[in-house]
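Two proteins, back to back. First:
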Amino acid sequence: MIYFSNPKYSFIKNKKEILKNISNVIDKGQYIKGENCEKFEKSFKKFLNCKFVVGTGNATDSLLLSIRALGLKSGDEIITTSLTATATGISILNSGVKPKFVDICKKSFCIDLKSLENKINKKTKAIIIVHLYGQSCNMDYLKKICKKHNLYLIEDCAQSAGGFFKNKRLGTFGDLGCFSFFPTKNLSCLGDGGAIVTNNKKLFEKVKSMSQYGWDKNRDAIYLGMNSRLDEIQSAILNLKLKNLNKDNIERKKIAKNYFKSIKNSKILLPENVKGSNHVYHLFVIKTKRRNLLLKKMKKNDIVCGIHYKLPLHKQKIFKKYKSYLKNTDQISKEIVSIPIYPGLTKKEQLKVINVLNDF
């Protein structure tokens, strides 16, 4: 069976070193806020070329903490995309502010920046930009919009670890960047894990405090905080996996290049890359108007695909009161299919995927 993602492969490949790192954590006896987390935060900071990193329990917490750190009020609005994981929108609701959804571009699936700017009003205080599937929108244009309208920018980098726009790492454009280390991600651990990155010292100090109950150095709670920490075992694994991130992303790009070159079927549309964006292909997402038939054919040939995402946020019950008409999002969500892409996907497996698609 060929799966659209196979996190087991990378862990089995590095099993000996991973077990050694876990064993070291167990032997040392400090399982939260120890040397491994500190090492990862420093290494990730260097990798991204940013000033501050805070390890968190997961990317959903990272988004929630980031929004809360901005000090927004009830009635304020945050603009984001509807074609994203539920976590993006749920973080906005849990922070006590309102989401406003914007349509996407037909070919790249990234947020439509012209539509975004048209949605800005007096209540708009921030934008959460989602680097969907591993690539960004035009970040130069987005930064100009934020500056023009005096808006905060949060980057949802759950799917884009290691990606660039031009020569700058994703996650370092905004006021805050939020990462996920869920097992399927480009940079992954053996459970939940996340991080917040920033170049703003005040925001860093605030999210760091808020991630641990809102404590100051005397353990006096000065903010409304929570418990969201990256533990030592996950940190130890991430220290190992971070060393291989660039290499793994290059492998993803090679697979994508093979797909672009070899998939030739008029009933299947391939994704389009944004100019200036260095896509790291967390997912390779195609479109077809006959999705159910394609999924059946793929499954019959032992190829398991995914759909990211079948139900956009504005169609989910909790978000329906924030009424949105998103023509492209509605249409695209009915056509998208995530086909297999991950480090370790063999040439033989890639050829099988290509042949089945071309035969559809």
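And the second protein:
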Amino acid sequence: GDRIVLQNRSTSGCKLEGYPGLQLVASDGRLLPTTVAPPSAGAYMFPSLVPHRVGLVPGAYSSFELGWEDNPSGAGNNEPYNVACPSSASVRVILPGTHQYGTAALTMGACGGHVDVSPLVPGSIGFSFGG
């Protein structure tokens, strides 16, 4: 898993709510098959969270967690690893409710292109499991 941090670099405040979209990108720029799942019951890497509106003043941060499997299963067991779990060099992060995106350098081998995402939360440190 990993965390992606977004920053409001505009001179105006903005509001985000929900789950970001993602598109995995290979090192040669090809878009890889990607399925994004907002796990309503949580995921191995993070608990279930209800999306809330996140207000960002200029310069403020928001973040989200993502997790993926890197061990092929099902039909992927019969494919070469680089086919079942193709490596991405970056990921396009698509803001909720828009077609706007930014690109983050992130190497992952998400099997079947499946990635679990948390909702956006305020700040750059994500969230913890409590305690």
